[in-house]
Amino acid sequence: MAVHVSQLIQQLEPSATLAMAAKAKELKAAGRTIYDLSVGEPDFATPEHICQAALAAMREGYTHYTEASGIPELKKAVAKQYLTRYGLEYPPDQIVISNGAKHALHNVFTCLLNPGDEMIIPAPYWVSYAELVKLTGAIPVVINAPQSNGFKLTADSLRSAITPKTKGLLLCSPSNPTGTKYSREELQSLADVVLDTDLVVVADEIYDRLVYTSQPFASFPTVRPGLKECTVVVNGVSKTYAMTGWRIGWAIAPNRTFAKAMADLQSQETSNPCSISQYAALAAIEGAQDCVEQMRQEFDRRRRYVASRLQAMPGLSFPEMEGAFYAFVNISQHLGKTYGGVRVDEDPQWCLELLAQKGVASVMGSAFGAPGYVRFSFATSMDNLAAALDALQEFITHAT
Ligand SMILES: Cc1ncc(COP(=O)(O)O)c(C=O)c1O
Description:
Layout: H1 7-10, H2 16-29, E1 35-36, H3 48-59, H4 72-86, E2 95-98, H5 101-112, E3 118-123, H6 128-134, E4 139-144, H7 155-161, E5 166-172, H8 184-196, E6 200-204, E7 231-236, E8 249-252, H9 256-269, H10 275-286, H11 290-311, E9 326-330, E10 337-339, E11 342-344, H12 347-358, E12 360-361, E13 363-364, E14 373-377, H13 382-397
Parallel strand pairs: 1-12, 3-4, 3-5, 5-6, 6-7
Antiparallel strand pairs: 2-8, 7-8, 9-14, 10-11, 13-14
The structure holds pyridoxal-5'-phosphate.
């Protein structure tokens, strides 16, 4: 008897970022020199004191099941962090610790959305949002946010996308893939629309500590009174502490009922996130924060270098990278040309040819709902960046 995949899963798109990284690894394994600018993770080692905390946890026997929604100490540490950094006060039992922020988002969408509900997602968007929404039977409603506005949603376009079926709005700031971030004032104008309606906002703040401009990061629930009650905040340790492999993220719920729903779901689906990783995350949050600043400064150095190189290349445009570690570049002037004898009309093919001909891995804008663009990550060494940008320059200058 044939085994068929369910209809729900058949409509799932595989993660394009992971697919590109896999292709780059394959070429590397075959002996090619590859400059991988497709990655969405810090290239630094997890700081030593965090690794030591994990070793201590193992030795002290914290190697068993924990509370399904995470250890109370970690929830308290997350609550304290949001209080001290942003002045937001949450009881620890409104926090659910998960296997990474991606899992936290899955919990949020599954507990929030009914089949047929609409979730507004500004494009360009991180690849997983729309797929995670579809898994609940709800409908991702994608609104294009133009490059001229730093790829940010405006209050008017939000208002015009709202229908009786709209349940919520997804906001990611600083953004993957665009590298831009919303100012407090921009968030306030969106908040005014939200507060006028009964939308729930899912605020993905995973890049909150990787900000390079003088304007500070604004956590969405802080920008207007009343937002805490209608916002679910998602964050984690992956990007801030170079801990992508440890798989710890969390959702901060607007009330205890919603937190309990997510905890119940998680208790049936995965049980607790890895006990050892939870103790490592605790050490990350409670320990010295100089490692975060050191990594941020290095990302900033690379960001300035990448921006200056890209600006010097003809026909490329991109907004200032204010946060995260990505440049989101408009390549439309370079489409419809021939590269090494191959005519290239669309961004996916452009990325594949750049990889095949020059060994530079990137991610096509189409994967983020933005055809005609390419995402370059600067979470790689200066040497790699320099070589990749030289290769990119050659690629574009020799096109005919
Ligand atoms: C915007 C955004 N949200 C969430 C995640 C998921 O992070 P985690 O590794 O904690 O699952 C990522 C990872 O790439 C991301 O870029």
